[in-house]
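Case 449 in the screening queue. Each case pairs one protein sequence with one candidate compound; here the compound is pyridoxal-5'-phosphate. For every case the pipeline is the same: read the inputs, emit a complex structure as tokens, and attach any notable structural observations.

Predict complex for case 449.
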Amino acid sequence: ARGGGSAVPRTPAAARTYELDRRHVFHSWSAQERISPMVITRAEGSWVWDDYDHPLLDFSSQLVFTNLGHQHPRVVAAIQQQAATLCTVAPQHANAARAEAARLILSHLPDTFEKIFFTNGGADAVEHAIRMARLHTGRIKVLSAYRSYHGGTDLAINVTGDPRRWENDHGAAGVVHFFGPFLYRSPFHATDEAQECERALAHLEQVIALEGPGTIAAVVLESIPGTAGVMVPPAGYLRGVRELCDRNGLVMIADEVMAGFGRAGRWFAFELDDVRPDLVTFAKGVTSGYVPLGGVAITGPVLRTFDDRAYPGGLTYSGHPLACAAAVATVRAMEDEGTVAAADRLGRDVLGPGLRDLAARHPVIGDVRGVGAFWALDLVEDRASRTPIAPTGGTSERMGRITAACRVEGLLPFVSSNRIHVVPPLNISDGDARAGLAMLDRALGAAEG
Ligand code: PLP
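Case 449 output:
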């Protein structure tokens, strides 16, 4: 028997951690008295060990960030080496790790991108991208999609289009939401991807026209909305958004915090639609999450705004050397090990076919969506109604049973509302990926009777 209320006691070290955590640590997005956090005591590659010293296959990449898996030796060594040489310098000084990280990241972006502004994570990257767009255009409004996640800080949570916004929403100036394409639960009653794409673009065009193009600074959108359900947009959608931005003088901000750095089988997911945004936000996979780092990649026209005018913004730890050393090692390891192509192949050969095979045998699976190492199962009461088995932003007894059954099998997926997200490290072995799919198969079988 494994964890989750089993009679097996925690290991003594894990028991002490659990006790201290429950007493002293305040957890994100949680009612503090209703949580029972899993203690992770160690990790290696695609595996983590829990409170009971049981191995779990990490199909979550934690919060979709350990793109190289846990404890990649090259990244660990680079952090150690940087720590031994120079732990930190202030952002106004130049530093080798930071300069090289910027160069390497830019080398994987279109050549229209010239500079990187480093942040500590994704939310502040989004905040700064919006600030740059506002200063560049002299306009305030920002259009963002429903069913999106852009971070937990003030403006980032307000542009977010999921229920976590509600209690934090104080009507941040100029934030306007629109519907992106999502054929399975089409806001446009479309019947195929091409129609969904066309109608989503017509809708956005209307929103821009009625908000007043001269009042809008930017459209911010995830190239593939991740947390809200891995909704790969139809071919041509991002290109259509680009066209609308060009026609109306709006800055196109692609949020690649989750989808970037190989997750979608491309260095950046916007490549799937052959489009060039004006600003790109990134975080998570840039260091495989080993040290917090995020940033904004900036193209020429936005950059020129700040040639002779000071950019009014900054962060004490912008481009922290330990984080940048981790980024350099992560990107080089990904280049040398062919990690991005591996993720693409994993999606085509293993995860896509494997998850579709599960759907053929488990009626609770209403939809399988994804690309690369970025997938979600949309779980439904029945396929005709497509009613989710748990509400958006909430959970249910049935969802809880399925999650618990995964844990018993030794699988750690990323669970959100009525969905199981299959988002393993990009370099997971085919054997482990197949083993994880078999665990998911048995868990769905056990939970569904
Ligand atoms: N943007 C996207 C697309 C994300 O998925 C996330 C986090 O999940 C964020 C922004 C926020 O990043 P962070 O939690 O590092 O602030």
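Case 449 observations:
- The CA atoms of residues 67 and 425 lie 5 Å apart.
- The chain has a mean pLDDT of 96.
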